Amino acid sequence: MGASPASGWRANLVLYAALAANLGIAVAKFVAAAITGSSSMLTEGVHSLVDSGNQVLLLYGQHRAKRPPDAEHPFGYGRELYFWAFVVAILIFGLGAGVSVYEGWRHIQNPEHLRDPLVNYIVLVVALGLEGTSWGIALKEFAASKGEMGWWQAVRRSKDPAGFIVLFEDSAALAGLLVAGIGIWASHAWNDPRIDGAASIVIGLILAAVATLLAREAKGLLIGERANPEVVQCVRTILARQPGIVRVNHVRTIHTAPDRIFVAVSADFDDALTMGAGETLIEGIEQELKATLPMLSSIYIRPEKAEDAAPAVALG
Fold first, then answer.
1. pLDDT tens readout for residues 266-283
2. In what residue span(s) does the Cation efflux protein cytoplasmic domain sit (predicted)?
3. Among candidates 132, 108, 89, 115, which has minimal Cα distance to 32?
């Protein structure tokens, strides 16, 4: 049964909120940059435009990831979201950070005195309000999903990149707005337009740091990460209490989507079990696993003697 439009909207609330905020802010920043000649405001406009494109890519990735399995992709298309998350990180680095650093360097080499900064300040205040709202929504949603884990641990363990990407993007955007405001004020206060260019470079470095962090997390998801230890332990517990299983050799998992997990189990079955009894036992285990852990989309259970099982060092 598919998700209702309301539930789909709720699931993507963070992305829609960030997209709406960034589109409006980008237009305002470009207008302010054209009126005042501010380099940092121009780079902030590019930043918001890149962020808007990123939200569109993540929404597209989520849509593509929901396609059902087929003959070519028997485990579905869930990991396509991880590919688009990696693309987003590259765009932040290449377009956001690259353009910001270049524009800042160009402004330092050929300084242009800023005109009336009032427009810039108005746009910055409005942008802070919109970005702050989007950041608050992203923070609330991520806090609700992380449970008792610490923030950094939750990011490392998260298998849904959309939530933490928007949170990091909005955090970088707020930091960029503060840097831009300081650069504009200092340029006027000390009558040195090169400071505005230096602010652009600082914004670019902030974006580069965020992009590097996001690329690292997205790469891990794209290559394939195991399920969280709690899921692996739950699978082991269910298997260990089965009367026909002597020993659980290993449990290996991999996320095929944020909410889908493939699990492969090697277990030593009681030698007294007949083939029919073993098949019935495996069927019962699969039903219990799926009832307890609905995210287990594919389950493979292999009867195997403990001494024949391959070692599972550092695997889950």
1. 999 988 888 888 899 999
2. 229-304
3. 115
Helix (H) or strand (E) holding 267: strand 260-269
Nearest to 59 by CA among 11, 4, 131: 11
* 105 within 8 A of 201, measured Cβ to Cβ: yes
* Domains defined for the chain, CATH in brackets: 5-223 (1.20.1510.10), 229-303 (3.30.70.1350)
194-223 helix and 98-109 helix, angle to the nearest 10 degrees: 160
Whether 254 and 226 have beta carbons less than 8 Å apart is answered as yes
The sheet with strand 245-257 has its strands ordered as 245-257, 260-269, 296-303
Q: For residue range 39-89, what is the model confidence (pLDDT) as tens digits?
A: 777 887 887 888 888 888 888 888 888 888 888 888 888 888 888 888 888
Supply the pTM of this predicted model: 0.76
Rounded (to 5) percent helix, strand, coil in the chain:
65, 10, 25
